[in-house]
Design brief:
Length: 170
């Protein structure tokens, strides 16, 4: 496969950084909304926080995850990095799978459940069976996703571990 020209590589890298920045900004927004939901006494505020988190989970989280993954794969395949030549790239690929699972499945499901539970006729969603457990799982997902994204950024900058050694024949 042919390698990218410098101009195309820079454009692809710029797109990758934009998508990764959207992901990180989305995580910061999730933290703010989850903190607000945890601290509010207002049923309307709680419901709004979950509505916005669910909207983000279905839009920018999905789009930025797909964009970052696709541009990352293209950067690996179309440059000298390769997909499995460096330990730091393999670690990024594993963490990418974690972020996909948490973002596509976890955040979507937990926010949707929170929206449904906060719609209940009860004035206080916290009194609904399962709401606290769901909110706790949402927090766990947000924290794991945030840690994964920070580690992905760190791996991208420091590139630890070096090159994978070729398998030796017996």
């Amino acid at each position: 496969m042919s390698k990218l020209t410098l101009q195309r590589r820079r454009i692809l890298l710029l797109l990758h950084l934009i998508f990764a920045s959207i992901m990180l900004g989305g995580q910061a927004t999730f933290i703010i909304l989850a903190l607000t939901a945890s601290m509010t006494d207002s049923a309307a505020t709680l419901r709004t926080c979950y509505d916005v988190m669910h909207l983000l989970a279905d839009t920018s989280v999905r789009a930025s995850t797909i964009g970052t993954t696709v541009t990352g794969i293209l950067l690996s395949v179309l440059t000298s990095w390769g997909l499995f030549r460096y330990y730091w790239l393999i670690a990024k690929e594993v963490l990418t799978l974690v972020t996909i699972a948490i973002g596509f499945v976890g955040l979507h499901a937990w926010t949707l459940r929170g929206v449904r539970l906060s719609e209940a006729p009860v004035m206080n969603a916290w009194a609904e069976p399962g709401f606290t457990v769901n909110h706790t799982w949402l927090w766990i997902g947000i924290l794991l996703q945030s840690i994964s994204l920070i580690v992905l950024f760190i791996l991208s900058v420091w590139k630890p571990g070096g090159k994978v050694k070729a398998a030796r024949s017996l």
